[in-house]
Amino acid sequence: MARRPMMAANWKMNKLISEAEEYVEGLLPRISDAHEGVDVAIFAPFTCLGAVARMTQDTPVLVGAQNFYYEDSGAFTGEVSAPMLKDLGAGAVVIGHSERREIFGETDEAVALKAARAVEAGLLPIICVGETKEERDAGKMWEKVGAQVRAVFEQLDAQQIGGGAIVFAYEPVWAIGTGESATPEDAQEAIGKIRDLLREIGGEDFAREVRILYGGSIKADNVDEIIAQEDVDGGLVGGASLEVDTFAKLVNGASKPRE
Ligand code: PEP
């Protein structure tokens, strides 16, 4: 069975509750025909997650957080747990975004623990991996990305969870928020290698089922070519997801059958 594409909005640290509500109200009618062909997800800040989840509860839109902590409760000041996310109506969570890895020091080990806890709690983790510009220029893209993917399976048993339980997002750090996206060929090369590694780790069916998104300066004028690549199953979109019109166009474009 073909993998269903996903178009996911990562709002990062943007939008007050009123702005989030206005956005969702504007988005839903614009994407109502798209659900047959694409899964749509919104990753909102914690503060407006409840409002977005409430407004989308009778729709196919998946709502998620941008981070969480892998313990369920206790003395972890400032953190939010999987049960708390579920309590708000979240069904998914972004894990290991490069901004969390680079600015907040999130390690491969923490990312793996979060991925395992998310799956166990019934949240769909979107696990982000990607290399820096220096690593790419030094020919170390795969050394970095391959190690990040492998680390996840220190905590997750591929055979046990099945390929539908997780999503990866290949997000080259140099392409995030820079306006400089990877070429479709670069995206396919990295994502194809991730799929090969998933095959090695979890077998053919597992590798065939896991969705792998591309993220990094996706816009209306580069999205078609990128998501037309064989192994690319959609996009994780930052900047271009902040305006309803732009994100609706990306969603509707992704729902068209692939050539
Ligand atoms: C992201 O935040 O995951 C992202 C890909 O951002 P942008 O689309 O702005 O590059």
Please report the number of helical segments: 12
Quote the average pLDDT: 96
Indicate the structural class. Answer: alpha/beta
Radius of gyration: 17 Å
Q: What kind of assembly state do the chains in view correspond to? A: single chain
- Through-space gap between termini: 16 Å
Bound molecule kinds, no repeats: phosphoenolpyruvate
- Helix fraction by DSSP (H/I, runs of at least 4): 40-55%
Are there runs of 5+ residues with pLDDT below 50, and where?
Answer: none
Instruction: Tell me about the largest β-sheet.
Output: 8 strands, parallel, barrel
Q: Encode the helix/strand succession as letters.
A: EHEHEHEHHEHHHEHHEHEH
Estimate the strand proportion: 5-15%
Question: How many runs of DSSP E, i.e. beta strands?
Answer: 8
Which strand order spans the largest sheet, edge to edge or round the barrel? 1-2-3-4-5-6-7-8
- Based on Cα principal axes, name the global outline: globular
Question: What does this entry look like structurally?
Answer:
The longest helix has 19 residues, at 184-202. This protein has helices spanning 17-30, 46-56, 82-88, 98-103, 108-121, 133-137, 141-152, 158-161, 184-202, 204-209, 223-227, 244-254; strands spanning 6-10, 39-43, 62-65, 92-95, 124-129, 167-170, 211-215, 234-237. The model has no long low-confidence stretch (mean pLDDT 96). The protein contains twelve helices and eight strands. With 259 residues, the protein is an alpha/beta fold. Phosphoenolpyruvate is lined by residues 10, 12, 171, 176-177, 215-218, 236-240.
